[in-house]
Amino acid sequence: MTKVTPLDTAYDPHRPDTGVLLEVRDLEVEFRMRSGTVKASNKVSYHVDKGETLAIVGESGSGKTVSAQAIMGIIDSPPGFVTGGEILFRGKDVLKMEEKERRQVRGDRISMIFQDALTALNPVFSVGWQIAEMFRKHRGMSKSEGFKRAVELMEMVNIPSAAERVNAYPHEFSGGMRQRVMIAMALALDPDVLIADEPTTALDVTVQAQIMELLAELQQQTGMGLILITHDLGVVAEVADRVSVMYAAEVVENADIGELFERPYHPYTEGLMRSLVRPDHKGGRLSPIKGSPPDLLAIPSGCPFHPRCDYAQDVCRTDDPPLRVIEEGRSSACHFAEVFSDA
Amino acid sequence: MTDTTNKPPTEAVLAPDVATPEVVPAGAPQRKPASLWSDAWKELRRKPTFVISAVIIVLMVVMALFPTLFTSVDPRDCNLLDALQPPSSEHWFGFDLQGCDYYSRTIHGARNSVAIGVVVTLFSTLIAVTLGSLAGYKGGWIDSVLARLADIFFAIPLILAGIVLLNALGSKSVWTVSAVLVVFGWPTMLRLMRSSVLSVRELDYVDAARALGASDWRIITRHVLPNGITPVIVYATITVGVVIAVEATLSFLNVGLQLPAISWGLMISVAQNRILEAPHLLFFPGLFLSVTVFSFILMGDALRDALDPKLR
């Protein structure tokens, strides 16, 4: 084994100091329920820079959405509590902000789009009204000004005949169009950071690609930082600059996108890649990761991944490996990061 | 990044999606926006049960507001010589024991009955919607306190509470009767409102609104209330009818409005001693009462069907 450099603050030491927009440091979130306390975010750290796309990848229940909810302040409390860590937006901890200041940050500077745009739009108001609301609320515009801007935004996200459709209601739009409306709403105030929580999961594959392209394009235009939360490594490969892989409420691997696919440093990442459907594997069998993600109420001892890991050794059952730097820009939480990836 | 970023966005991004049928063809007339409410209205207008109940309710409300439109006879201008005369072509509903024109009294009786029904429902709904959304949205101890408080009132039967309180109060005007019915009427609606808010609160668009910077007040007024109030509106409509019936019951039991007030319940109460002798004394106020109550319940049903998108 090579020398271990422990990463005590998961604050990435490789990154230059300029352009950091949003940084999550050692975030801990607990859900206190009758059946016990669940740690849904265990010392999770990541950051996103200007114009950069960070993908957070993991299975359902890996806690990837929780940190985004913590950033936006939409964790249901109780049962959810942020118990530790910092969320720095341009160097200022949003968790310590007064409610009023925080409300000005969210929606305005940090915005979010959701998995299912049908349920994320209010069914009783027209989409134009809902987009215009952003301008009226945050910018004090009049109703007619707000609607004018709403039409512009709907054109920006490529909704055809926007001027006619501005008075239509969410249920009158198709899934892809609704997600475009949601994106228009989230981008209304030209935010610095956009969090996209599984933005394409509820959509057809063809529409998925369009939405991802739209997001990428809007990001180029605006230079915003994009945090893309997804379980789909295929999507990640197309748009992300950097990837953080999450497993059982922890970040288990950080990497630049190219390097990640070339050589994963965590068996879980490798497993995710093996279970991707790829054209060059035609005729062969998919090899999914055996077992299922752990119940966060009963996380296995030692490395949380060891019961599903092909490379597990005795030490994995007893010691939880810390996230450590493997090489420039890469870190992994595996005892045998270098060893297994050589195999 | 793929090469699409260099192309004009319109071509690159939306090709297949444009083909979906939702797209308005160029030059198509701008169509009126549809909302749950305007859809519901469209549906309601076609429903005979709604039309019938609406016509009756409007008629009763007009009768309550302007009784003189329907009769020029003073209900208190009585002549004992006419006592208990049965209906005739000149006096359609006959006369009561005091020789007052019974048609006029029935018409004038609408005011108190409808007033109590509307006032009680209005105030109970206001209390229930305010406290219910507070309890449902805020949760925690506020919810516990309000829900337990509602449970306590809920456990006391409306009629029993009315009898006890009104007996104790002594004064039995439209206002005191209404007040007692409000005090014991809001808990059911609060529970309804609370559960409705609880379910709406969990929906994504409430989270989305908060994530986009909306305040609690804004979330409640723009998102939770408009989406959660439907069951309460339906229930309130039915409640108007129920309250009118309860007022009649209380008056019949002699703890509601007192003579010389005119109300259907009171008329039925007076009529009970002479049912065989002068059945018209029971029949006409009873008919008006049941038709009104029935209309409100029918209206509530029609609203429920129209406002519930799942039943469409």
Describe, in plain words, how this protein is organized in 3D.
- The complex is a heterodimer of chains A (343) and B (312).
- By secondary structure, chain A is α/β, with parallel strands linked by helices.
- Helix content of chain A is 33%, strand content 24%.
- Chain A has a nine-stranded mixed sheet with strand order 1-12-13-11-10-4-9-8-7, with helices on both faces. Chain A has a four-stranded antiparallel sheet with strand order 3-2-5-6, with helices on one face.
- In chain A, helix 5 crosses helix 7 and helix 7 (175-187) runs parallel beside helix 8 (205-222).
- Chain A starts with a strand and ends with a helix.
- Chain B is 67% helix and 0% strand.
- Chain B has helices at residues 9-18, 36-45, 48-65, 102-138, 140-154, 158-169, 174-201, 204-211, 216-228, 230-252, 264-271, 280-307.
- The model of chain B is unreliable at 1-33 (pLDDT under 50).
- Chains A and B meet through helix 2, helix 4, helix 7 and helix 8 of A and helix 1, helix 8 and helix 9 of B.
Biggest interface: A-B, 54 and 44 residues
Q: First CA to last CA of chain A: what distance? A: 14 Å
The SSE order of chain B reads: HHHHHHHHHHHH
Strand fraction of chain B: under 5%
